[in-house]
Amino acid sequence: MRVSCQVNGETRVADGVEPTESLLHLLRDHLDLPGTKNACEQGECGSCSVYLDGRLVCSCLVLAGQAEGTEVTTVEGLSEDGELDPVQQAFIEAGAVQCGFCTPGLVMASHDLLRRVANPDDDQIREALAGNLCRCTGYQKIIDAVHIAARR
Ligand code: FES
Ligand code: FES
C-alpha cells in the first residue's frame, strides 16, 4: 500500500508498505531516516520515539498506515538549518552519549518534557524519561543534559 505523510516538514510518500509494517519500519526502511532506532519493537525501550501529530509515541507500536495524513517529527527533524537543537547539543556537552543507541529516543523524550515543563527538577526528569532505557550511561549525565538544555 501507499502511505503519504509529512515527515520533518516535507511531504513523503512510500509505496509497497505492508499493512503489518510499523511506523518505525516506514521511517527507517522506506524513508531512509535511520535516526529513529529499533531496539525492542515491543514498546519497552523508547529508542523509537517520535512525534506523531505533536504527541510523543513509540513508533514501533504504530502501524505505518496510521501515519497516513499525519505530521511526523523524528530526531533528524529537531535540528534547523544545520544547527543542533539545544537538547541535542546538551547531550553532547554533558557526555550523555556513549554507544548512542538510546540517544535519539532520549533526545525526543527530553525535548517533549521541556515543551511541557520549562525547568524540570530531577524527579520530573526521571519520571518523563522512565520509558527510555539506556544500558551505558547510568542516567546521571542524561539528567545533567536535560538541565543544561533547560537553562537555554
Ligand atoms: S523499539 Fe520501540 S519501544 Fe523499543
Ligand atoms: S548510550 Fe548506550 S544505551 Fe544509552
Structure described in brief:
The chain is α+β, with helices and mostly antiparallel strands and 152 residues long. 33% of the residues lie in helices and 14% in strands.
What does this structure look like?
The protein has 152 residues and is an alpha+beta fold. It is built from 5 helices and 5 strands; from the N terminus they run E-E-H-E-E-E-H-H-H-H. It has a 5-stranded mixed beta sheet with strand order 2-1-5-3-4, with helices on both faces. Helix 2 packs across helix 5. 39% of the residues are buried. The model has no long low-confidence stretch (mean pLDDT 97). One FE2/S2 (inorganic) cluster is lined by residues 38-41, 43-48, 58, 60.
| Number of E-state strands | 5
Indicate the percent of residues in helices: 25-40%
Large-scale geometry: globular
Number of helices: 5
Structural class: alpha+beta
- Compute the CA-based radius of gyration: 15 Å
Strand and helix order: EEHEEEHHHH
Average pLDDT over all residues: 97
Q: Beta-strand level of the residues, as a percent range?
A: 5-15%
The main sheet comes to: 5 strands, mixed
The spatial strand order of the largest sheet comes to 2-1-5-3-4
Bound compounds, please? Answer: FE2/S2 (inorganic) cluster
Distance from first to last alpha carbon: 43 Å
Poorly predicted tracts of residues? none
